[in-house]
């Protein structure tokens, strides 16, 4: 005798999800996101001040700050600390430069055993490729809008 397969309806699935999902402590999550994201930005500002104090001009100090934040983000990702921070900070770690550096480093760490090209190279840019493409397209669109509104 052939048994009848049970199919889950959309309503059954929605009910099962609601039964198993926990309540999200939104106020706590927002506060942690704000504090940790703000802390990352404050660290960036402190780095700029430090580099200016060391004698670098404003633009070079800002560049060195960006390089430092990318380095720290990659280092923390490699040491397994960035995911722990992101677990508590949520969107606070998505400050663009640190989040992007993490999105490049994490797949490289995960797939390094597959080789330099087919592991690290492919997986890094599989994740970061869309960010680079859409970032480039957005900058062109914004540049054209800026040019049209200021030149014409």
Short description:
The chain is mainly alpha-helical and 152 residues long.
Model description:
This protein has helices at 10-20, 26-53, 58-78, 81-89, 96-110, 116-151. Helix 2 (26-53) crosses helix 3 (58-78) and helix 3 runs parallel beside helix 5 (96-110). The chain contains 6 helices and no strands. Helices cover 79% and strands 0% of the residues. It has one domain (28-151). The model has no long low-confidence stretch (mean pLDDT 83). The chain is extended. It has 152 residues and is an all-alpha fold.
Q: What shape does the CA trace take?
A: extended
Number of strands: 0
Helical percentage? over 70%
- Described by its quaternary structure, the protein is single chain
Derived from helix and strand composition plus strand pairing, the structural class reads mainly alpha
Order of helices and strands: HHHHHH
Strand content: under 5%
Alpha carbon gap, first and last residue: 78 Å
Taking Cα atoms only, what radius of gyration do you get, to the nearest Å? Answer: 22 Å
Main sheet summary: none
Number of helices: 6
| Mean residue pLDDT | 83
Taken together, the total number of domains comes to 1
Task: Catalogue the unreliable spans.
Answer: none
